[in-house]
Amino acid sequence: MATSLLQHLRTGTRAAHRALEDDLGFLSRLTSPSRYEEVLAAFLGFHEPLEKALEASIAAHRLPWELPPGADHLAADLLRSGWSPARIAALPRSSPPDVRTLPALVGSLYVLEGSRLGGRLITRWVGDALGAVPVSFFAGDGDTRRRFRGFCAMAEDAVLAEDAQAVGEAANSHFLLFQEWLSAALPSEAS
Question: Which residues contact 178 (CB under 8 A, 6 or more apart)?
Fold first, then answer.
C-alpha cells in the first residue's frame, strides 16, 4: 500500500472520532461516582455484545488476535462499586456492529484497540476527579501502545490494499454506533 492502513484509518476516521469525543463531552460527564457508574454501565451494554461478535469473527477469519477482557473488567468495576450481579445482568445491551467480513472486523478492532490508548489518561483523570473508584476497564492490562502497534502490524498483514476503504467505513460506522448508543444509554445530567 502506498499509504499505510493505519495512516488511512487515522485520516479517514478523524472526524468521527472527534465527533464522538466532542458531542458527548465524555470527560465532563464523569462528575460523581454515580455518574461514573452510569458510564461504566453504558460501556458494558455496548462492549459485551461487541466482544462476543468480535471473538466469533476473529475465530472465523483465523485472525491472530486476542481480545483482552474489556466487558469482564467493566462488570468487575460495577461489582466493586456495589452493583449486584442481577442489576448488571439486567442492563440493556446494544446490537453490535456487523463484523462478519474481514474489513468490518479490522475496522471495529481499530476503534476498540485505539480507544485503549486513552484509557490511561481517563484512569488518571477519574482518580483525580473522583478519588478511589474502580478503574480496571480504563487502566487496561499491560502496555497499550505496544499492543496497538502490534494490532496495526497484524492489520497491515491481514488486509488487502483494495479493502482499506471498507475498513475505514467500518471504523466510522463503529464510532457512530457507539456515539448513538452512549447518547441513548446515558441519562442527561439533569436527570
Answer: 20, 46, 111
Residue range 2-17, pLDDT digits in tens: 458 777 777 777 777 7
For 92, the grid coordinates are 440493556
Whole-structure pTM value: 0.87
CA–CA gap between residue 124 and residue 129 (Å, rounded): 9
DSSP notation for 64-121: S-----HHHHHHHHHHHTT--HHHHHTS--PPPP---SHHHHHHHHHHHHHHHHTHHH
**How distant is the alpha carbon of residue 154 from its chain centre?**
18
Angle in degrees, CA 15, 157, 69, rounded to 5: 70
